[in-house]
Amino acid sequence: MTPQDPATPPTRPRRTDHLTRTDRAAGAVVGSAVGDALGAPFEFGPAGAFSARFPDGVGEMCGGGGWDPGEATDDTQMAVLVGESLLERGGLEPADVFGRFRRWAAADPKDIGLQTEIVLTSGDSWDLAASLHFQMTGLAAGNGSLMRAATSAVYFAEAGREATMAAARRLAALTHGDGAAWEGTAVLHELVRVALDGGDPVAAVPGTLARVAEGHRPRWATVLAPDWHPDLATEFNGAVWPCLGSALWALRTTGTYESAVAAAIDLGGDTDTVAAVTGTLAGAVYGLPAIPARWTGPLHVPLPGSGGRVLDAADLVALAEALVRGPAPTHP
């Protein structure tokens, strides 16, 4: 599954207008989880490892690297916690989200980002922990707020562009004190909103960039440009800029959900998160029906700190169906 040259993007499938909003919402949530579980065994491996293992182009939930086949990582676990908080609290209550994160972190999840772990275990209050960490280290532009954004992007989409981008910033700020992470998560929220409305998120990039905070706009414009390629990244793709840039590149240079996620994993590096973000976008564009049953069948999401619960693909679909109703719109 070698990605096509970005200079000649493929034609999108002829018809996606038959998809319902729920098809797309479930595609985003399940698509993110599938990308996460597919990418996890290849994390920190070399470029091209996925296609080398599956040269016929039919990738499987192979497991490895400490992960069972189909097992989702912290990316999806945190996304579920966000989604359940939004539904149970009837909207965004940052303290509640942070409390769920903290209980999850204390339950010894199999994987947790270093920065996220430091913030959640610092003992500082929800409204200070991330900013204090950033003040002390100056390092808080990881991709950890992108990886968990599928559920919140679906929930806030109906509220409109300004509301969904504002919510993304507040959620990102719970663990990431660098505004670059806030703006990147806001961009992802908005591109998902466009896709859920049946639009093209690639075409929506210029308008979305106009809503990015001015101080961060030039750098985001660089990695989201139509001629940007992951080889041009100046940081490891565990950073927020190349992670989202790579996900958009994978969507832009392929023509199916499967090929987009495979292209993301083949980049190597932080494969679970890059594939999760790619899966969020590609799932929203192509919908749940485009995600192969051979990938959704083995999918499972353990939830440390939640009484031993393990969600499957059907549970994630039900979560997406509840989230898609979202809050009341705030735009005309």
From TrEMBL:
Record-given protein name: ADP-ribosylglycohydrolase family protein
InterPro entries: ADP-ribosylglycohydrolase, Ribosyl_crysJ1, Ribosyl_crysJ1_sf
Superkingdom of origin organism: Bacteria
Compositionally biased spans, kind Pro residues: 1-11
One Pfam assignment: ADP_ribosyl_GH
Molecular function terms, GO-annotated: hydrolase activity; metal ion binding
Bound cofactor: record note: Binds 2 magnesium ions per subunit.
Cleavable signal peptide: none
Cofactor(s) recorded in Swiss-Prot or TrEMBL: Mg(2+)
Gene3D superfamilies given in the database record: ADP-ribosylation/Crystallin J1
Family: Belongs to the ADP-ribosylglycohydrolase family.
Keywords carried by this UniProt record: Hydrolase, Magnesium, Metal-binding
Region feature Disordered, mapped onto this chain: 1-20
SUPFAM superfamilies registered for this protein in UniProt: ADP-ribosylglycohydrolase (SSF101478)
Binding site for Mg(2+): T73, D74, D75, D270, D272, T273
Keyword Oxidoreductase among record annotations: no
